[in-house]
Please model this.
Amino acid sequence: MAEPLWTGAEIAEATGGALKAPFDAAGIDIDTRTLRPGDLFVALTAARDGHDFVADALAEGAAGALVSRVPEGVPADAPLVVVPDVLAGLAALGRAGRARTRARVVAVTGSVGKTSTKEMMRTAFGAQRRTHAAQASYNNHWGVPITLALIPKDAEIVVAEIGMNAPGEIAPLSDLARPHVALITAIAPAHLEAFGRIEGIAEEKASIVSGLTGEAHAVLPADAPTFPILRAAAEAKGAQIRTFGTRGDWRLGDVTPKDGRTRFHAATPAGALEVTLDAAGRHFASNALGVLAVAETLGLDVERAARDLGRWRPADGRGVRETARLPGGGEVTLLDDAFNSNPASLGAALEVLASTHPGPEGRRIAVLGDMLELGEDEATIHAAVADDPHMAAIDRVHAVGPLMRHLHDALPANCRAGWHPDAAAAAAAVGSMLRAGDVVLVKGSKASKVSRVVAAIRASGRADRPEGS
Model:
């Protein structure tokens, strides 16, 4: 029988909790919809109280539950660990998971590209070392502890993703993860509503170095306008610094995003590299170069890691390319980048759209939802998208949401396809948006819900991934 990830007694010791009945846990989850038999169910209280679902979790095969009280309808001798505060208990379990591993830990943050870069590392490192990486976008006050608590006992590399929405959030998570290597992907005007200025964002992102341990390494984006802030923080920590981008130790050369792929050359301390990614985007090339710089710090074969990056694919909503069939016949190419948006990532997505060839009589179409949390200049920032140089190659723009009305009004008349007050209205108009041969980009902040447009396009026919994806 396989050794459990955690015994109930180990969980109780790590959290200072009271064990009601013995159990062995093979995994951890906070949601009964994704819980697998043998998981520890963690009864967090957020929008809903997880204690209301403990009985269901146990009935569905949960090995046990981490709770702050015995829930109604659950026997007092059920397999529970009772702690004063569930979130604090989860953090303690994550700290214990980090303490017992001998793996090298990498922490990644940045205004854009965190999750894609984390998944690049999973792919590039996993062929050479047993690699454990965060699930989905588990990058907050509960996601990072779960990542650490789930570290397999035989892991050799751990990749933790660390995000933020407000000042002061990254340093405590870095202190919990205690990484050997910190990677910052990029600094961009996201969350300006909370920070007011991009320098504040850079200072917060730079605080990822606070938890560095051992022979500390910081891998930093040399092209960031706020690079001096990042470098100063790493130097103050005594970290060994590697830089990447169009300048720096790991230097991008030619980057060619075209028809769903990106080929780039790079001059690096590990030698000249040529890399082909099965995803289009200059930003993907930059992030991949940062990943290879991390590979070198971990003592991996960089050339092999570069080859293995060719197997990485972006996840849904993060730049994935699909073919969707139309009800009346014919196909469109769908660029699904609907998970999030800010000025930097939108500019990168527009470049990808501009470099993607439509079919005969097809057009390049952008469906753009609001970019949120941009602060008092949000109207100006949205209108300025009209000046993006790649807009010249885009035939029609559908603007979605109250903020994108500013872009709609700033566009030349021949480019305005329409303004939709919300994603539901845009999704309802999908049938009139598209014709065979079109390439359509859908992008917006998650709360703009433009993923509904993606779902409507997929539902209009049958969505197929390209062969091999």
